[in-house]
Each structure stands twice: as C-alpha cells, then as structure tokens.
Amino acid sequence: RVAIAPEQLQPEGIFLDRPQQHYLSRVLRLKEGDRFIAMDGQGQWWLAQLSENPEFATVLESIPVQTELPVSITLILALPKNGWDEVVRQTTELGVTTLVPVLSDRTVLKPSPNKLDRWRRIAREAAEQSERQILPTILDPVTFRDYLALPETPLERYICVTRTEAPHLLAQVLASQRSSAGLQLSPLEIAIGPEGGWTPGEVEQAIASNFQPVSLGSRILRAVTAPAVALSVIAAALEM
Ligand code: SAM
C-alpha cells in the first residue's frame, strides 16, 4: 500500500514521486506489471500496476473500503514534554480524524516546525499501516484558551479530567448519548490535559464552551497514555 496525494492521480494514471518509486522498487521489490494499492488519504483506494516507466502506474480499478469510524474525532492535546511520537502513532491507528496540539496554562513550550513535520510523517506511516482511508490532520499548535474562543461548530465536546472533578465516565456518557440520539451520531471533540493537568480556569472556560467534563476511570493515567484510552473508549462506543 502506498499513500499518494490526490493530485498525483491523473486521468492517465498515477504519477509516482522519488520516495514512492524507491519504496515500491527497493523496499517492496515490485517490478513492471506488479500490483499495489494506492490510497489518496481522502477515502479513495485504487488497485494500480507498475508500468515500464518507473514514474508512472496504471490504475486498474477503484477498491471499495470502509475502515473509518462513523463520525469524525477531534483530539485536543496539551503537549506532553515527551512521547508525542507515540501518541500520534497510536491515535492514528485508533481512528482519530484531527489532532490539535495545544499550549495550556501548564505547558507553554511551542513545538518547532521540524517536530510538526515529523508528527505528520508519523501520522502518514501509521495511517498506511492501519489501512486508514483518511490521513489525520495535525493542526498547527494554538493555545487552549484561543482554541476555546474560536466560533463553535456543532460537536459533542468532552474534556478529560481526573475523577474528583468528573463524576461521569466517558464510556457511560457516550452510551447514554448514543441510546438517546439513536442513529444520529454527531462529530466528537475530546480534550486531554498535560502532565500537571488542566488548571481550574481552563476547565471552567471549556465548560462555558460546551465541553462536558468526563473521567476515564479511577486510576490517573499519564498524559501520553490517556489519549489512546480515550480513543479506544470512543471507538468501542461508535463501532458497537
Ligand atoms: N494531577 C493531574 C490532574 O489531577 O489533573 C494529572 C494529570 S494526568 C497525568 C494528564 C491528563 O490526562 C489529565 O489532564 C486528563 O486530561 C487525562 N487523564 C489522566 N487520567 C485520567 C482519568 N482517569 N480520567 C480522565 N482524564 C484523565
């Protein structure tokens, strides 16, 4: 499987860039006439065949697939000091749609453009390996408070806080929301705090912006563990 950009697909076939040619011929050891799957990161897959010209592959047919969760999931993450590579990889595998790295009251270190490029590359690799149809988007970092001040879109919004602050478990809230909404699923947004947790002011501002505080259970999870747990709970609720 190879991820391609939508513009690489032309009426004549797929134009392959240098890294893709290298991957197909050197890593996968494919030759002229061999077939592979091209994914455009926007939900479309094609069965393609290498031609005589290594820069070009012929499209044989489109492949129907459904590997995405039924609604989009936006994960807002206060940047932990370390471990972001793993968080990006795991949450991509679990079906995240958009990752929003936020600077919070207790984390103010802005990641470099190099780090963002690295996370986007990791998301791409993880999406390929998990056979995602969609390549998750990693937004540029923003402060959590600025993000909350953006105009609201119709989303179910949750903020993860530890048990003393949130009486309701995310799993329970999603289950009751699903049973009352029936098949009407709306996109979800979920926020996870940094190592030191959210400040009370941030939680207050989030609640004022329609975020519901939820717990992931009685044990306190590390900031790099909580995203995968939250995504697993959401995926389980949506795929049941
Ligand atoms: N002492 C901090 C506190 O009480 O908020 C612990 C922060 S925890 C290491 C980092 C983040 O992970 C939290 O801000 C929260 O968003 C999330 N988190 C960790 N365990 C959680 C749990 N059991 N329920 C809900 N959120 C949790």
Short description:
The chain is of the alpha/beta class and 240 residues long.
What's the topology here?
Layout (H helix, E strand, L loop, with lengths): L1 E2 L5 E2 L2 E3 L2 H10 L7 E5 L5 E6 L5 E8 L9 E6 L5 H11 L3 E6 L9 H17 L7 E2 L3 E2 H6 L6 E5 L9 H12 L6 E5 L7 H9 L2 E4 L11 H14 L1
Parallel strand pairs: 1-4, 7-8, 7-12, 8-9, 8-10, 11-12, 11-13
Antiparallel strand pairs: 2-3, 3-6, 4-5, 5-6
Helix pairs in contact: 2-3, 2-7, 5-7
- The tally of domains stands at 2
Apparent shape: elongated
State the name of the first-level CATH class of the largest domain. Alpha Beta
Classify the fold: give the CATH topology of the largest domain: Alpha/beta knot
The fraction of residues in strands falls at 15-25%
The biggest beta sheet is recorded as: 7 strands, parallel
Give the helix proportion (percent range). Answer: 25-40%
Structural class: alpha/beta
Low-confidence stretches: none
Count the DSSP helices: 7
Q: Superfamily at the CATH H level of the largest domain?
A: SPOUT methyltransferase, trefoil knot domain
Measured distance between first and last alpha carbons: 28 Å
Counting copies of identical and different chains, the oligomeric state is: single chain
Secondary structure: number of strands: 13
Bound molecules: S-adenosylmethionine
- CATH architecture level-2 label of the largest domain: 3-Layer(aba) Sandwich
Subcellular location: Cytoplasm
InterPro entries: Alpha/beta_knot_MTases, PUA-like_sf, RsmE, RsmE_MTase_dom, RsmE_PUA-like, tRNA_m1G_MTases_N
Main location: cytoplasm
Catalytic activity: uridine(1498) in 16S rRNA + S-adenosyl-L-methionine = N(3)-methyluridine(1498) in 16S rRNA + S-adenosyl-L-homocysteine + H(+)
